[in-house]
Amino acid sequence: MAFWTGQTNEPKRNYRFLITISGIEGDNDVIWWARNFKVPSYTVTETKHDFMDNQFYFPGRVTWEECTMECVDPVSPNALQITNQMIIDSGYTIKENPNNAGAVMSSISKAKANNAVGSVLIEVLNSAGSVIEAWTLKNAFLKGVTFSDLNYENDDLRTMTLTWKYDWAVCDNTGAGTDGTKQFEEGTAAAETETPTE
């Protein structure tokens, strides 16, 4: 069988993906207006020990990097309004005169921020539309939103970039083949998982 021609040898493609955010109200949670998504990545810190003229390194902690998502801002559904509502549902309020009757003095909490977003799911598909890789951000919250600049000389679609912060991610690539493994499962150390199956 020729290289890359078999069903199990087919390479993954960058444009075959779906983003689903359960915290968005509507008939469908799939973010069809997404343009790209930086999938979860991580680094392992190191600790150095000097002995005589040698240096020895020991692995430290796993740090998960922030994820960014660029999407178009459609009129309906209004992505700008959706993201602003996430911040409001996280507990953010404009503090007015605290002496006013009924003044709200609440603030953002992790629990409210997580609930405002819900789950963030990134699914990689094959040519048949089946999920072969799925990433789930655990305890995700919206850290930042950047809007594209307005410009009379620019006729591009208006976009917005969302930055997601999370505690860790779960990668499920069991759909990649019969020998696929589910990695970084809750309560399972990354060092104890098997090598990912491409």
Structural class: mainly beta
User: Segments where pLDDT lies below 50 for 5+ residues?
Assistant: 187-198
CATH architectural category: Roll
From the spread of the alpha carbons, the general shape counts as extended
Helix content: under 10%
Largest sheet: 5 strands, antiparallel
- Across the major sheet, the strand order is 1-6-7-10-11
At the fourth CATH level, what is the homologous superfamily? Hcp1-like
Give Rg in angstroms: 21 Å
Salient structural properties:
11 strands; 198 residues; 5-stranded antiparallel beta sheet; Pnp Oxidase, Chain A
Structure description:
- Helix 1 runs antiparallel to helix 2 (110-117).
- This protein has 198 residues and is mainly beta.
- The protein has a five-stranded antiparallel sheet with strand order 1-6-7-10-11, with no helix packed on it. Strands 2-5-9-8 form a four-stranded antiparallel sheet.
- Helix content is 10%, strand content 36%.
- It contains two helices and eleven strands.
- The protein is extended and about 70 Å long.
- It has one domain (17-92, 104-192): Pnp Oxidase, Chain A (Roll), CATH 2.30.110.20.
